[in-house]
Each structure stands twice: as structure tokens, then as C-alpha cells.
Design a protein that fits this description.
146 residues, mainly alpha, 5 helices, 82% helix, globular
Length: 146
């Protein structure tokens, strides 16, 4: 059975997103480590412990989501039914988190236009993924026969 171009597109996009998420998490992990342990020896300032814990948790979550997105993208290309369902869940989570981040950013900085444009860009892929992966033909391709 041939894989449709839309499935290939979303599989590759999420592999790329996963790789970028892993790279960004590693980058921020290294930068935060340098700021927390190396830089204070030059300038005596340390972050509060709660902030440090929060940052390390965000870094680990970023790594976990990156690995999850790569696994999901690869298995979407293999037409695994669970990968389609996982992508739908990830898309919903992404829409909710992007919307909450937008609201928080507007409240904190009053920069509505810039954040609104950012929100639109962040919502395009998850909304398209939800639409495409819920089409009858795509559900059929992934083994859902109802």
C-alpha cells in the first residue's frame, strides 16, 4: 500500500521537530549549566533553587518530547495506527500549550501583534495534522475501519 504525501509530510515534519527539540534542549542545558556552575565563579550570582529545578525539568521535558516526536514520526511513516493516535494527542497538547503561552506572553509583555503572529505560526502544523489525520481515507489507511 502506498503512503500518501500528507502522511510523509507530517512524519518528516515531526522527525525534524523532534530533532530540533532535542538540539534546543541540549543547547539550553549546556548554557544553563554554564550559567549556573561556571559563570558564578566569575560573577557571584546564583539562581534560586526553585528556578534551577524548574529549568532542569523543562530541559528534560524538551528532550523527552523530542525523542517522542522522532519515534512518532518514524512510525507514522511506517503507517502504525498508534503513531496516528499519538500525533493527534501531541497536536492537541501543542494547541493548548501554544494558546496558554500566547495568553501569558500578552499579559506579561503587552506585545499582542508579535505574539499573535507567533501563535498563528505555532498553530498551523498541529491544526493541519488534526484535520488531515482525521480524514476518513487516512483513518482507513491506518487500520481504523469504523
Amino acid at each position: 500500500m502506498d503512503r500518501p504525501g500528507g502522511v510523509t509530510f507530517f512524519g518528516v515534519i515531526y522527525i525534524i521537530f523532534g530533532a530540533l527539540s532535542i538540539l534546543a534542549s541540549l543547547f539550553f542545558g549546556v548554557v544553563f549549566f554554564l550559567l549556573q556552575y561556571i559563570y558564578p565563579k566569575v560573577v557571584p550570582y546564583t539562581y534560586p533553587m526553585s528556578f534551577s529545578i524548574f529549568m532542569w525539568i523543562l530541559i528534560v521535558i524538551g528532550l523527552a518530547f523530542g525523542i517522542l516526536e522522532i519515534i512518532m514520526g518514524i512510525n507514522l511513516l511506517k503507517l502504525k495506527g498508534w503513531a496516528r493516535k499519538m500525533m493527534i494527542v501531541i497536536a492537541i497538547i501543542s494547541i493548548v500549550l501554544s494558546s496558554l503561552l500566547f495568553i501569558a506572553s500578552v499579559i506579561m509583555t503587552k506585545g499582542f501583534i508579535l505574539y499573535f503572529l507567533s501563535l498563528i505560526v505555532q498553530l498551523i502544523v498541529p491544526i493541519l495534522a488534526l484535520w488531515y489525520l482525521n480524514k476518513y481515507e487516512v483513518k482507513w489507511l491506518f487500520g481504523e475501519r469504523y
